[in-house]
């Protein structure tokens, strides 16, 4: 009987079905540059579709209930539409809203953490390339505005609580108003991370940062991690 890599919990039905998760080296080869760029292309095209058909008509000077989850739920639907149109079912991943990361579940009775959205490998649903989404009111470098963004990157992604079976992931900002260059500069200042232009999407509000993660004992997760930073402007007014 196959055993879960997380010795603090009982095996899941996915552990029994798919066996031991891939090694770090295998995961790095799996989430290669070609596939990652396809995922990011879907992420951007999903935003384009959602903005043109929905977000552009919303007045962003108002406060809304459950805004982050509402946008993300609609955003995942837009990505699914783009994926269906461009790949017609022939794609190695699917996209899901709020999938659970059971590898990081602390105890058998605890609810595992959930991503805002993730691309999930069709051949093994435990293997995910996640995206975390944050609503930002402005581009300002305040704790209220960017605190959750920074803590998600530092305490979840880089601590391997998120993306244990991936060498990368993304942070998406739904920014109501502001300038993306100012926002990127403020994120870099608060984190001391080197945010670089990403040549594959040079015409987009898109940066990346490279990191070396501390891997938990007895775990074989990818150590080198690339975080993509995408800014989705919600208001046409800058």
Features:
238 residues, alpha/beta, disordered N terminus
Task: Give an account of the 3D structure.
The chain has helices at about 15-20, 25-30, 35-55, 65-85, 145-155, 180-190, and strands at about 95, 115-120, 130-135, 170-175, 195, 205-210, 225-235. Helix 3 (about 35-55) crosses helix 4. It is of the alpha/beta class and about 240 residues long. The protein contains six helices and seven strands, in the order ααααβββαβαβββ.
Secondary structure: elements and pairs:
Elements: H1 13-18, H2 24-30, H3 33-53, H4 67-87, E1 93-97, E2 117-121, E3 128-136, H5 143-157, E4 168-175, H6 180-191, E5 196-197, E6 206-212, E7 224-233
Parallel strand pairs: 3-4, 4-7
Antiparallel strand pairs: 1-2, 2-3, 5-6, 6-7
Helix pairs in contact: 3-4
The main sheet orders its strands as 1-2-3-4-7-6-5
Structural class category:
alpha/beta
- What gyration radius follows from the Cα positions, in whole Å? 18 Å
List low-pLDDT spans.
Answer: 1-7
How many strand elements? 7
**What shape does the CA trace take?**
globular
Distance between the termini: 57 Å
Elements, N to C (H/E): HHHHEEEHEHEEE
Mean pLDDT: 93
Number of distinct helices: 6
Largest sheet: 7 strands, mixed
Helical residue percent? 25-40%
Total discrete domains: 1
Strand content: 15-25%
């Amino acid at each position: 009987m196959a055993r879960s890599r997380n010795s603090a919990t009982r095996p899941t039905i996915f552990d029994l079905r798919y066996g031991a998760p891939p090694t770090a080296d295998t995961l790095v080869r799996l989430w290669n540059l070609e596939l990652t760029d396809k995922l990011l292309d879907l992420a951007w095209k999903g935003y384009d579709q959602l903005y043109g058909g929905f977000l552009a008509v919303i007045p962003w000077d108002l406060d809304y209930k459950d805004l982050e989850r509402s946008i993300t739920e609609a955003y995942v639907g837009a990505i699914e539409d783009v994926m269906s149109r461009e790949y017609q079912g022939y794609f190695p991943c699917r996209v899901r809203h709020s999938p659970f990361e059971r590898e990081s579940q602390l105890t058998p009775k605890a609810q595992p953490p959930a991503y805002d959205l993730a691309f999930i490998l069709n051949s093994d649903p435990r293997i995910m390339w996640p995206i975390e989404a944050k609503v930002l009111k402005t581009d300002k470098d305040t704790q209220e505005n960017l605190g959750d963004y920074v803590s998600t990157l530092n305490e979840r992604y880089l601590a391997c609580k998120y993306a244990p079976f991936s060498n990368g992931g993304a942070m998406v900002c739904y920014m109501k108003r502001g300038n993306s260059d100012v926002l990127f500069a403020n994120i870099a200042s608060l984190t001391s991370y080197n945010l670089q232009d990403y040549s594959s999407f040079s015409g987009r509000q898109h940066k990346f940062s490279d990191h070396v993660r501390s891997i938990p004992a007895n775990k074989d997760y990818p150590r080198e991690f690339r975080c993509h930073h995408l800014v989705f402007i919600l208001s046409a007014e800058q």
